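Title: Comparing notes on inverse folding

I've been comparing how different people in this forum approach sequence design from structure. To keep things fair, I'm posting one structure and asking everyone to reply with a full sequence. Here's the target:
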């Protein structure tokens, strides 16, 4: 029921479809003698692992691109933005655009419009209306690494990125396992599924990664969105120093409870309000959460997060 971010909506939809597919008999192994069925199930599960990891990569790239649109409207002069952000918006954007252009040429496509758009965005950092290129982040290689995700947040002045993400995810209800290790394991599983014929991704591996993807995506979104808003507005010390943002974030929950939806502030066991339907719960919670920019986490009856929304923009 969250809105506003196409990147977020796409991720939640694709992860939901992947988890639903895991219930299909075609993906579940039978007895050892059912060799043909089991081989077919393994092949499909391996493909779903690649798709699930790509879904998370797409979210990171597309969400940061959405946030860069907001950051481009900053009241802060480009030369006063953090130096690493300036470097990403110029040198890294130029390098990534060139790399993507070469990929298009190798596939027989015309890269001219890509280069022209990227050139205009990079030139805008010197004069005119600022347009920070989406190629500034997330395009160092064909696949995202945990180091690159941390680098994105560092350029947005977020200190101790993965630990901060783990802190947020734990508070949302995803559990307390370190997210960097989960991402790296997912990346390894994706690589094996794509390149090794002996790989046999199990349903539990896929189910676990789908949950981990939600934890990684939501915590990244919450921290990146908060950092972008603070930088855009020139608030506090974030322009001159990296800060741990998790302590600056307070959450608001929509919990499924006895067939209704309980709106709660983080740390409170009592519901602020109980809603009869999910649509009205989201509508009213968003209105209140916007006042102090609280991210909203929707959780199921087991208190596991299934959706979220940031209110910084």
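Reply #1:
Here's my take.
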């Amino acid at each position: 029921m969250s809105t506003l971010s196409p990147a977020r909506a796409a991720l939640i939809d694709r992860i939901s479809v992947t988890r639903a597919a895991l219930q299909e008999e075609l993906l579940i192994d039978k007895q050892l003698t059912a060799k043909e069925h089991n081989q077919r199930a393994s092949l499909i599960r391996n493909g779903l692992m690649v798709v699930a990891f790509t879904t998370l990569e797409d979210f990171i790239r597309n969400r940061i691109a959405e946030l860069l649109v907001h950051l481009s409207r900053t009241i802060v002069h480009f030369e006063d933005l953090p130096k690493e952000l300036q470097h990403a918006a110029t040198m890294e954007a130029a390098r990534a655009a060139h790399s993507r252009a070469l990929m298009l040429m190798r596939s027989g496509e015309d890269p001219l419009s890509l280069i022209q758009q990227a050139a205009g965005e990079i030139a805008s950092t010197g004069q005119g209306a600022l347009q920070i290129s989406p190629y500034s982040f997330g395009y160092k290689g064909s696949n995202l690494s945990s180091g690159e995700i941390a680098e994105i947040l560092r350029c947005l002045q977020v200190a101790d990125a993965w630990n901060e993400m783990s802190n947020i995810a734990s508070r949302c209800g995803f559990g307390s396992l370190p997210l960097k290790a989960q991402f790296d394991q997912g990346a390894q599983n994706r690589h094996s599924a794509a390149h090794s014929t002996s790989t046999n991704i199990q349903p539990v591996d896929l189910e676990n990664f789908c949950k981990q993807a939600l934890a990684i995506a939501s915590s990244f979104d919450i921290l990146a969105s908060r950092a972008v808003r603070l930088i855009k507005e020139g608030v506090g010390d974030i322009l001159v120093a990296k800060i741990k943002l998790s302590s600056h974030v307070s959450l608001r929950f929509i919990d499924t409870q006895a067939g209704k939806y309980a709106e709660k502030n983080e740390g409170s066991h009592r519901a602020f309000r109980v809603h009869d339907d999910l649509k009205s719960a989201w509508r009213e919670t968003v209105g209140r959460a916007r006042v102090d920019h609280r991210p909203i986490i929707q959780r199921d009856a087991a208190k596991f997060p299934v959706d979220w929304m940031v209110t910084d923009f």
